[in-house]
Amino acid sequence: MPKFTFMSWNVRMYKGSKPRLEEADRLISRHSPDVLGLIEFKAKRQARELMFDRFPEYDFAVTDSKGGLEMIVGFRRGKFKQVIWTQRFDFNNAPRTLRPGALVSVNYAGQWYSLLYLHTDSGTAKKDYDNRWKAFNKIWKLEEALKRSSTNGKPNLIVLGDLNTMGKGSTLTGAQEIDQLERKARQNGMYMPTKDASETWHQWGKGPRGNRRKLKVSELATAMRSDLDHVIASKDLDFVVHGDDGQSAIHVHGWQQVNGSDRVNFLWSLSDHSALFGEVW
Q1: What is the b/e burial string over 184-211, where b = at least 16 CB atoms within 10 angstroms of the residue's CB?
Q2: Contact between 6 and 278 (Cβ < 8 Å)
Q3: Which has the closest alpha carbon to 53: 21, 17, 85?
Q4: In CATH, which of 3.40.50.300, 3.60.10.10, 3.10.560.10, 2.60.40.2230 is domain 4-280?
Q5: What's the number of CA atoms in the CB half-sphere (13 Å) around residue 163?
Q6: Are residues 98 and 67 in contact, defined by beta-carbon separation less than 8 angstroms?
Q7: Sign of the torsion angle spanned by Cα atoms 11, 12, 13, 17
Q8: Average pLDDT over residues 125-152
Q9: pLDDT, tens digit, for every residue of 71-107?
């Protein structure tokens, strides 16, 4: 039977205005997840409004990183018997210039489930790729540690977020890095549930950093897209089918659902990432 729902969404350096917060509110409320993770949240005032006023039925925890692009994780009050929050600095890089992992462990009907939200290093340079894989390899260690500590030998781990699977230089494409990640997951007793969209990120503007402009509707067809956001789960975990395709476990919701000028505005004013939504069975 269905147990609880979860959501992960990179809201792209969120410093947003009230209209942007209202748009984010509508998308989150549409799915009403029991566990919610927002990535790249920067604005403290809007974070307080989101936590205190817009989602008062949740308790929240916030990461603390040097870069100030934080993860906000919320969990529905009363849904779980107990919730434990841990900030995992071991998933940061050595100088701690990236983001720690946000680990929330929830007790549902006497069973523990751990959800680890990650925002790994972006870029295609060797150092970016190496930083990502240092984090990925720690996933398998966490899976094994949870397995050893579990009373029934089931780790019940869900890793989700913006994993930035961009590849490495000219030697490895993003798709090939995802294939690597899927193989490593299977080798370590985990798997990547299917999503109902092949891409989760969309180019949101044109021009150099600091002087970008909105895309034109005519540019949407040739805009860059990529598959950066993923879910990795322990092999014994099953998920309710939520995909628009009627068969995928993970529903991708965001810019895919709008077209034309509505997509341009979504990308520009809200986020270049779509959200991931799933439900544990």
Answers
A1: bbeebebebbebbbebbbbebbeeeeee
A2: yes
A3: 21
A4: 3.60.10.10
A5: 26
A6: yes
A7: negative
A8: 96
A9: 999 999 999 999 999 999 999 865 666 789 999 999 9
